[in-house]
From TrEMBL:
Annotated protein name in UniProt: CCD81 protein
Superkingdom field: Eukaryota
One GO cellular component term: microtubule organizing center
PANTHER family, alphabetized: COILED-COIL DOMAIN-CONTAINING PROTEIN 81 (PTHR14362:SF2)
Residue ranges annotated for the CCDC81 HU domain, each copy included: 57-127
C-alpha cells in the first residue's frame, strides 16, 4: 500500500525478493517517490524510485490525521499544504532544510542530492523477520 502526499510524493511499502547464496528472502521495505514541481528543485537531483503498479496508492487521510491531534480535517489539510509549499519555496531559494516525518524518516539534501532516509525503527517495524536484510537494502 502507499500514501500520496500531494505536492511532495508517495510513500509506499514494497516487497523485494533477494537471492543470497544460502536463502531467498522476501522483505518489506519503505520507499519514497518524489513528486514535486521540477522548478522547485533547480539543480538538485534525486534518486529515481519506481513504485510497482500493483501497489494501491491512497490519498493522505486528513480525517484520520485530525483524529490524532484533535484539529478539524480542513485545518490539518491546510497545515500539510502550507508546510509543503514552504518547503518547496525553500528549495527553490536554494535553502536546504531537512523535512522530518515523525516515526518515518527525513527528506534531506546532501551534496545536491535530495533523498529520503528512513529511520531504522520504521524499517524494523515493517520487516520483523529479516530486518537486517531490509536495513541493508534501504
Amino acid at each position: 500500500q502507499g500514501v500520496l502526499v500531494p505536492g511532495l510524493g508517495t510513500f509506499a511499502v514494497v516487497h523485494e525478493l533477494i537471492n543470497s547464496t544460502e536463502e531467498v528472502y522476501v522483505v518489506r521495505r519503505p520507499v519514497f517517490q518524489l513528486d514535486m514541481d521540477m522548478s522547485c528543485l533547480g539543480e538538485l537531483v534525486f534518486p529515481t524510485v519506481m513504485i510497482p503498479g500493483d501497489i494501491v496508492i491512497m490519498p493522505l487521510d486528513y480525517w484520520w490525521l485530525s483524529q490524532t491531534n484533535s484539529l478539524p480535517p480542513d485545518v490539518v489539510r491546510g497545515c500539510v499544504e502550507e508546510t509543503i509549499l514552504l518547503y518547496s519555496f525553500q528549495l527553490r531559494d536554494r535553502q536546504r532544510p531537512a523535512f522530518a516525518f515523525e516515526n518515518i524518516g527525513i527528506l534531506s539534501c546532501q551534496d545536491n542530492v535530495l533523498c529520503m532516509q528512513f529511520h531504522c525503527s520504521c524499517i524494523a517495524g515493517l520487516e520483523r523477520q529479516d530486518t537486517w536484510v531490509a536495513l541493508l537494502l534501504t
